[in-house]
Write a structure and sequence with these properties.
Chain A has 11 helices and 14 strands. Helices cover 35% and strands 27% of the residues of chain A. Chain A has 2 domains: 3-217, P-loop containing nucleotide triphosphate hydrolases (Rossmann fold, 3-Layer(aba) Sandwich), CATH 3.40.50.300; 223-285, Alpha-Beta Plaits, CATH 3.30.70.100. The longest helix of chain A has 17 residues, at 162-178. Chain A is elongated and about 80 Å long. Chain A has helices at 43-51, 69-72, 91-101, 109-116, 132-144, 162-178, 190-193, 214-221, 232-243, 265-274, 289-297, and strands spanning 3-14, 17-23, 26-28, 32-37, 58-63, 76-79, 150-154, 182-186, 199-204, 207-213, 224-229, 248-252, 255-258, 279-285. Chain B is globular, with a radius of gyration of 21 Å. By secondary structure, chain B is mostly helical. Chain B has 10 helices and no strands. Chain B has one domain (2-14, 73-138, 155-274). Helix content of chain B is 74%, strand content 0%. Classes of the chains: A alpha/beta, B mainly alpha. At the A-B interface, helix 3 of A face helix 1 of B.
Chain lengths: 303, 278
């Protein structure tokens, strides 16, 4: 497995407060990694550490398989918190500063990037007169300017209207598909994040509590009829023979999840009992993505 | 590092604060000359004493006294400009130039992008010095040009241009040290309002504080001829003689300025390397 980012026990302490607590994250190459946590959970601090804006108190970071972070960070583009822009300059001038700072000789690179992020028509309009969405797009343009292989985006859709959110979503998908850019993205809008993320990391009180991929998330959130029985093998036979159900699994001993014919639960129970299976528990399980995230994050407020 | 300097240059060219500072520098020169012309007209009786807020002393009003415009040359005006205007312009502009990058977050666009942090700080430090030197040169040139228009007496005398070069050169060196102090204080502060206030206070009150410390040293060590103000760049700027500058003073200025440059650059690099970027 090739990882773009691998951290081990990364910790950041401010006084007595542990903002980031032994985070070991794994971001696979080509992934869109959704980083989820409540306000103050440590997402931004962790991203700032990875981007080189803050130093970890302890822990190890590996970027593109290398521990030489200064040189590896050349391949990173980041937009952390608000985009860093000169309000009195135009979009073109802001990109021109970056072009000169990094010695990019191709003068047309600025126009191309403006075109790419959809700001080619802004002309002499100063950034201070830009909408939130335009500023975010310019911030992403700056982050993309040196063709990074890894993009770190902290709340890039914050404060955007629905149209702006869709624009940014499509832009990120395009970057991931066409340019194979790996993306680490945090967002409060969980439903939106679930539309693009292929991998998830959940952070709570500074600690990364879980990492899983989109498939696993779908499995976890899938609606099912869950039964706890004494004989799973016998129960499986009855389900196949009597109901022709193939969509079930046994995630743990004595527990079965049935994904089909969820309107037939009464009949299923009856047949299982008649067949000699003892049912200890039975209930309909599964929830929507946001509900699942809320459960992981430990509460519904301020996510 | 050359690329970073190119970026700084572009930012300076696009900075509104830079052009406003240049304008303030030019206007302040014209303002000082305006006062001199008014004083001269009061002296010759063309205007009433107290007109436009300019009051000429009884002594100066007597017929036997030398006309103000002959007595005060462009070098004297320049001394006033350096000590009373340039330091403020530099303090305010550099505060905006350095701290502004933290306020609007653009510093994040370059930190952690492959450049060593010391290089980023030094490019900012160096370019701030270049800007300060530009302000000094601008003020010098404008003072001399306006002086030429005001009257021949302003730039008269065989040694005027030699004195000017020597004086402006030494002031330039002290100014570089002062600029280093301002850049480092801005880096340590990183908050625009507070940074401007602290740097403005340094430009305004630090000479008085240095004098107070001189007095304190005299009280504690009456036999010592050590003076704090002799080692403080802003005090050196106001105490720098216009003419008859001896080699000892020039060497002293060079050593003190070099020391301040090394100290401030070192402290700035150390802090920039250690501190997180918010």
């Amino acid at each position: 497995m090739e990882y773009v980012l691998k951290t081990k026990d990364v910790t950041k302490v401010y006084g007595k407060h542990k903002a980031v607590d032994q985070v070991s994250m794994h971001v696979e190459k080509g992934a869109i990694y959704g980083f989820i946590g409540k306000n103050g959970a440590g997402k931004t601090t962790f991203m700032r550490i990875v981007a080189g804006l803050a130093a970890p108190t302890m822990g190890e970071i590996e970027l593109f398989g290398s521990k030489e972070l200064e040189s590896a960070r050349i391949r990173i583009g980041s937009l952390i918190e608000s985009p860093g822009l000169f309000a009195n300059m135009t979009a073109k001038e802001n990109l021109e500063v970056v072009r000169r700072q990094f010695g990019i000789t191709d003068k047309h690179a600025v126009e191309r990037m403006l075109e790419f992020v959809g700001l080619a028509e802004t002309g002499k309009k100063k950034v201070k007169n830009f909408s939130m969405g335009m500023k975010q797009r310019l911030g992403i343009g700056i982050a993309l300017f040196r063709n990074p292989d890894f993009l770190i985006l902290d709340e890039p859709i914050n404060g955007l209207d629905p149209e702006g959110i869709i624009e940014i979503r499509e832009l990120l998908l395009k970057l991931n598909r066409e340019r194979q850019i790996t993306i680490l993205i945090s967002s409060h809008i969980l439903g939106e994040l679930s539309k693009i993320a292929t991998y998830y990391g959940i952070i709570r009180e500074g600690a990364l509590i879980e990492e899983f991929d989109a498939k696993e998330l779908n499995d976890r959130c899938r609606r099912c009829y869950k039964i706890v029985v004494d004989q799973t093998e016998l129960a499986a036979n009855i389900l196949e023979e009597k109901f022709h159900i193939a969509g079930f699994d046994i995630p743990e001993k004595n527990t079965m999840r049935i994904f089909e014919q969820l309107d037939q639960t009464e009949q299923i129970n009856k047949e299982l009992i008649l067949g000699g299976v003892n049912i200890k528990e039975s209930y309909l399980a599964g929830q929507d993505l946001e509900g699942y995230f809320m459960e992981l994050l430990g509460g519904g407020e301020n996510v | 590092m050359f690329n970073l300097l190119k970026g700084e240059c572009y930012k300076l060219i696009k900075s509104k604060a830079f052009y406003i500072s240049c304008l303030v520098a030019v206007i302040s020169v014209i303002f000082v000359y305006g006062m001199l012309i008014t004083a001269s007209k009061i002296q010759s009786g063309e205007m009433e004493n107290g007109a436009a807020g300019v009051v000429v002393s009884e002594e100066e009003m007597q017929e036997s006294s030398t006309p103000v415009l002959e007595k005060i040359t462009s070098l004297d005006v320049l001394q006033q400009m350096y000590a009373n205007f340039t330091v403020f312009i530099i303090a305010v502009f550099i505060s905006i130039f350095v701290i502004g990058e933290y306020s609007n977050g653009v510093i994040k666009n370059v930190v952690g992008k492959g450049y060593a942090r010391w290089k980023i700080f030094l490019s900012k430090y160096f370019f701030s010095i270049v800007t300060a030197v530009f302000f000094m040169i601008l003020m010098t040139v404008v003072t001399v040009i306006v002086g030429c228009f005001v009257g021949e007496g302003q730039v008269a005398g065989g040694t005027f241009f030699m004195d000017l070069l020597r004086y402006a050169g030494i002031q330039l060196i002290i100014c570089i040290a002062f600029c280093g102090v301002i850049v480092t204080v801005s880096e340590l502060c990183r908050t625009l309002g507070a940074g401007i206030a602290i740097n403005f206070a340094i430009a305004t009150f630090s000479t008085v504080v240095a004098m107070g410390l001189d007095y304190l040293v005299q009280l504690i060590l009456p036999r010592s001829d050590f003076k704090v103000s002799a080692y403080w760049c802003v005090s050196l700027m106001s105490d720098c003689p216009i003419k008859d500058m001896d080699v000892k003073f020039i060497l002293h200025v060079l050593i003190v300025s070099a020391a301040w440059i090394v100290i401030t650059a070192g402290a700035g690099i150390f802090h920039f390397n250690k501190a997180d970027i918010k």
